[in-house]
Write a structure and sequence with these properties.
Layout: H1 12-15, E1 22-28, H2 32-43, E2 52-58, H3 68-82, E3 86-91, E4 96-97, E5 100-107, E6 112-116, H4 125-141, H5 163-168, E7 172-175, E8 185-188, H6 191-206, H7 211-214, H8 216-230, H9 233-241, H10 244-265, H11 279-315, H12 318-325, H13 331-353, H14 358-365, H15 368-386
Parallel strand pairs: 1-2, 1-3, 3-6
Antiparallel strand pairs: 4-5, 5-6, 5-8, 7-8
Helix pairs in contact: 6-11, 8-11, 8-13, 9-13, 10-11, 10-13, 11-13, 14-15
Amino acid sequence: MPSRSSDDTHSEADDHSPERVTVLGLIADPDMPETIAAYLAESLPEELDGEWRFEVDADPVTATLKGTAEILDQTAHKCDSRGWTYAICITDLPVRSEEGPVVADIDHDRGVAVVSVPGMGGLQTRRRVHQVIRQVLDELRDDHGRDEPGQVREQRRHGLSSRALGVLAPIRRKAVETEGSHLDVRYVTPGRRGRLRLLTGMVRTNRPWRLVFGLSRALAAAVATSAFGLSSSTIWMVGDQLNTGFKVLTTATAIAALVAWLIAAHNLWEKRGDTRSDPELARLYNASTLLTLVIGVVVLLAILFVVNFVLAWLILPASLLTSMLGSETDVGTYLAVAWAFTTLGGIAGALGSSLETDQAVRQAAYGYRESRRRAEYQEHEQGSGDG
């Protein structure tokens, strides 16, 4: 494989050093991939043989590309223009292939690769990306030449061949040949376990806990309604008298109402006739949206519950609750009362979420790339409707 010179980017000290510096460019989608790239730039150089320098470039342009072939081309162009030795794009784009969800695509000839963060799954994402990047660097520095298309060569190191990972979702290496692309090696997670891992990774890249702070109007409506419940003895009685089963059912109803309202009011559901992606990927997008919103709403209600419990404990005297409810007040009483405030606030939050703009909801519920993708599609739909 022809090596790239990085002399133009070296300082005079580097030029006179006995060992040439290897420069790795990490091109990252904004948001979570950028955070991971910054972490890798700090941690990886000390683990590699020789002298390395990492350069991180958060590129919104690359984040708008829709396939790994396009991303590899853009990455190769930037690698050449910057004088990097190698370049790896870290993206939150979910990628599927006939073999299964894609973890990494590698182009040996141009010394570039694409690593898909969702393919790592929802647990230990940063660690998995770290391991895959190490493996990709081994690939790029290997002069063995191209494998025959379809050839499977076991070369999984750096923790990728661990027993636990093999049980959960094994990562396979495969030589490939695609028309119109320089791609020659692909790492995939085959089978149902691979699809499940991709789904959890898509949810992880959305970072659903941010939904709490992104839905300001829904949160304001929930807090205001909870404050009203704090002063209503009727709400106290409802919370105290209902049994546990009914409370669980009511809480689930409040969560479902808020999630359904967000999806319907802000057009977050992928349509079956959508030609942007294959049916399987559309189902993955819908499942990740549903899980993202459910987790985000649960976090919102959990925070609201804690706040309501503390307020009830501080503001409502035990003697007052005892006189109104006709039973001895204990911690369980305060928990029941706080639950009533929270459930009422959750239903109000569903109504308040309709006041949020579509852009605010997308930014709260999705990562940069997915938020951008949905915004572009919505604009396309509106344009088609006007036409």
